[in-house]
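During the first year of the project, the team set up a workflow for recording each protein of interest as an amino acid sequence followed immediately by a discrete structure-token representation. This format lets reviewers and collaborators read both layers of information side by side without switching files. As required by the reporting guidelines, we include two representative entries from the current panel. The first entry is reproduced here exactly as it appears in our internal archive.
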Amino acid sequence: MRVRSLAKRILMQLRNDKRTLALMLMAPLLILTLIYFVFEGMVTTVSIGVLNAPEKYVDNLYDQNTKPVRYLNEAEALGDLEKGELIAIVDMESGKITALVDGSNSTDASKALKAIEAAKIKNMVNRVDLNSDIRYIYGSEDLSQFDNFAAVLIGFLVFFLVFLISGISFIKERTTGTLEKMLSTPIKRWEIVTGYVLGFGLVNVLQSVIISVYVVYVLNVFMIGSIWLVLLITLLTAITALTLGMLMSTAANSEFQMIQFIPIIIVPQVFFAGLFQLSPSWEKIGHVMPLYYSADALKQVMLKGNGLIDILPDLAVLLFLSLLFMVVNTKLLKRYRSI
């Protein structure tokens, strides 16, 4: 009898909590649908730039499930390689192949090199003195899978943990009455938001240092860029997650409701942060997600050795989003007090 009463009470609570009920029923369908479309939209072929090569060799590349693209000059091809539109550039002179490879993604680089060699053998160019000259523009030949995704994982872990902890902490300020007490004083809403950002921001600085140093120097992840830029990107990622977590906590009524935002806000970003090679149309969706810019900046610094100028657009977007979340959060605090 008591068991039945308890079960009935739980069901009644779930029925009254529409948000929890909807999340339990709809969130798995949302995530599965997203996974379906992401995997359906994944690019399975790699693009290889061709400078000088006979048409028969280019046809052989097609047969190896690659997409060869003809270029008239090396500068244009290198530009597309830098932008990630190509995995390799092939130049054939007197039967000898010189390949410039983007090794920042070891899986795609390996696929491209196998196709280049297979197309050469099929073209009956197999003399010892004509062995291919492979040069890595980014990355290296022995780049591991963890090296490939370390930049994305750093951004994700920082974003996820800061979002969750800051959001729950801000809710506790409300549920314990601390926020209401502050709002009863002459303090302004923007001062409350800024104060929390600065307070958590100091902890985020320490967190960024620990994570970055551990990954680079303890786990010995491949990195050719500046550790200071990695620290800067990680810190801005944490600030963006902090301000977004505070914003979401303002809309939540409990710690449990804050956790409910994870499958809606955090999980979708993982698919568009660079872990999967998506078609251009799907990649555009990632441009509205903060984690995309964090992962892109980290990959440019760690795998390609780019400097501050190269990652400024990504940093600018993260900074803009942080300020936007702070402004919106300040506006939402009107629900607790009109100032």
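The second entry, processed by the same pipeline in the following quarter, appears below.
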Amino acid sequence: MNTKGQNKRGYLMLAVLWLAYVTFVMNWVAGSSLTPQITNTFFGGPVDPLISEVVNYSITTARVFANILAAVVIMRLGPKKAAGLSIGLLMMGLVAIYIPNYWGYIFARMIMAMGGSMIIVYMNPFVSNYIANQKVKLGINAANTATYNIGTFIVAVLFTLFAEQLVSDWKLTMTFFASITVILFIIWLLGAEDFKVEQPTGNTEAYGYKQAFKDGFIWRFGLAFASFLTLYVLSLVSFKNIFDQYTLLNGSVTNLFISSGAIVGTLAGIAIGNKGGPRKPTLLIVGICMVSSFALALAFANAIPVVSYILLTISGFFMFVQYPIFLNLPHELKNMTPQKLTIMFGLFWAIAYAGQTIANIIWSFILGNFGYVPSLFFFIAVASVYCFLIPTLPETRPKEIRLKKVA
């Protein structure tokens, strides 16, 4: 077996999946940033917050179903075809732009979101199959978790520097972001290879969705991440327009600071994670820091904007100090296989996005009916759930393991 050549092919596929998800994020965030222009095209003016947020609801709802479906698809089609299908679905973002009906536009974006959700699930079996070294694995998983930040950062920079040009014709702007997917799809068709994801036989216990639904770890893990996503996704997607409307902050600049802080935080998370220290205390401390700094940023948003920008950067930093460590927890559990990882992450992402979608709907309802300040209290309360659930997760780096490493 040509292991060296196989590793090169593996890294190529991981790179394409990484770029595909970055492109998906750019398409999603750019669409959210252009929500006023898009809704004006379809409705001729401003709409209720529930209507303006319906694209984000539909995208996250589609992701719930896609995450559960991902494991079934990869078992039937194999990794190459399954991942290729997910990249192909991203191209519906290009189709959506030219559909003349708003609900047709939403439906096409939902299909695009299904592709994005399947990609984030498929990253795990590809990493498990091609990467054996735990430190390298943590670094690659960290790079995968940074995809959302990279995509958001690129869009934030472009909308900060070229806001007038990008806003003037939303269809042209969205076409640019969506077209990149076509190139990645062609590269995948030419360069990808297959491998087996079946669970090994022998003493390894069978693990399917029946076992996953009964696994308390996945539910606690998923609900904790739903809380995190409420803080993270709303801060970058929904809060851009909210900051512009209700505060002295510039929404594009806030996205720039949050995502740039998150990129630096990812590097810090890799360094901390590779030290092999206990996971739960680290995640709890960092979680408290990210929620409290964001809450303080909201408190200063209409008083001292500079302080808010600094606090938002700090919050973004702490968000992604914990992110690679948190999402690497299943990889650190005993007897893990590519199939088990696919099923666990499929259900995990479904729980996380379902929880975040419900929180998003309630938040926008409170915003539209009770106002900005009550919506913030709800937002911070939901984000704080993360800190309460972290202590309930298993410690994947117990004391005896760390002592062996020292010895």
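For the second entry, the following points were noted during internal review. Residues 169 and 400 are 59 Å apart (CA to CA). The first helix runs from residue 3 to 33. Both points are flagged for discussion at the upcoming steering committee meeting.
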